[in-house]
Design brief:
Low-confidence stretches: none
Largest sheet: 3 strands, antiparallel
Number of domains: 1
Strand content: 25-35%
Number of helices: 2
Order of helices and strands: HEEEH
Radius of gyration: 13 Å
Mean pLDDT: 81
Helix content: 25-40%
Structural class: alpha+beta
Length: about 80
């Protein structure tokens, strides 16, 4: 979990550190975590469930949907398809 927290901190940048991690309700394809930073910034990280359909397809589909609707509340800082 520390490695994931470090990745989140690096992805959003700035002089901050993670002060809290909460596991959010799981979806069908992902485990979802809410990271709260020292300055109040919050970030969500999703990790594919091992039993999910090929993670590449579910992750790229979610990213494409967020990009398509250009939702101002969501900003994708980092994506990797390598676990």
């Amino acid at each position: 979990m520390n490695a994931l927290a470090n990745t989140v901190v690096e992805a959003i940048g700035g002089l901050r550190f993670c002060v809290d991690i909460k596991e959010l309700p799981e979806g069908q394809y992902n485990k979802t975590f809410l990271f709260t930073m020292s300055d109040g910034v919050e970030a969500i990280a999703k990790v594919p469930n091992p039993n999910a359909v090929q993670p590449h397809f579910t992750t790229t589909s979610e990213v494409a949907t967020i990009d398509f609707v250009r939702n101002p509340f969501f900003r994708i800082y980092f994506i990797t398809l390598v676990c």
